């Protein structure tokens, strides 16, 4: 306390005798870390109301809690972070807690088989189970069956013969056909064959390449379509029964109404096959007669009018009326299930 008084008196000496605002130092008994032990007052003003003191008391814990939060964040920054799981096993496994002791197991998402987690965290056993899990393999087969696509070239196509690549001869007609198949396969615009970058790339590998126009490419794409259509017609000629599904919708961008007709059948190896048979524009208000006419023309075009087994449509009233129009034709062929009952 004596040292504190000496420091205060020296401070007063530096301010000078002419100072008009003397500082009163009030000292109370107690420890120095208490907020009420040492207070400063200017002149004869009061030290503060009780509300101000209470307000100060309520703010102190908030400050301390913020300080604790900052210290906690600092400690979290130095904690060892968990390594990200990069193994393919975790695509089909998840951690579960079993029993009162909450033992952690790795459970298969498909067959619910459980494996106790090792201390080192290895996934060898999980990968072996993932490779041989029967339910997972069954699901993969279903997904692959649904995602079957029409690949170019076809299995029986002459394009599989790569002898042209070894003869050293350049065939511009074969290159035009390949370009058309590429455009159809990836749904490119016909004008892509006119781009300078495309032609420069082809020209570097094949100097004999001749630039083709979008009109020529469009004709080549139609030739590819007709070739694939003949292949599908030959395939449908061997089918005994085929079912049709229809779907009608309106394009938001083009403001045009379409109907797609899809054929479904079981091939000789008991595999479900599906092909889009027709994609036709039906102008509004989509009368039932127009729908029935489009379906019947599609059947005649593919030569399957006597092979229809069932027709599935949505619950629109126009579809019901359209099928009633076709019922007489189907009944004469005696090919529909349950005698063509709707």
TrEMBL record:
Compositional bias of kind Polar residues: 8-23
Compositional bias segments (type: Acidic residues): 28-55
PROSITE patterns noted in UniProt: ZF_BED (PS50808)
Keywords: Metal-binding, Nucleus, Transcription, Transcription regulation, Zinc, Zinc-finger
Keyword Zinc-finger: yes
Region called Disordered, residue ranges: 1-71
Cell compartments where the protein resides: Nucleus
BED-type domain sequence ranges: 84-140
UniProt KW Transcription keyword: yes
Domain of life: Eukaryota
InterPro entries, per the entry: RNaseH-like_sf, Znf_BED, ZnF_BED_domain_contain
Protein name, UniProt field: Zinc finger BED domain-containing protein RICESLEEPER 2-like
Source organism of the structure: Coffea arabica
Record lineage: Eukaryota, Viridiplantae, Streptophyta, Embryophyta, Tracheophyta
Gene from which this protein is expressed: LOC140015782
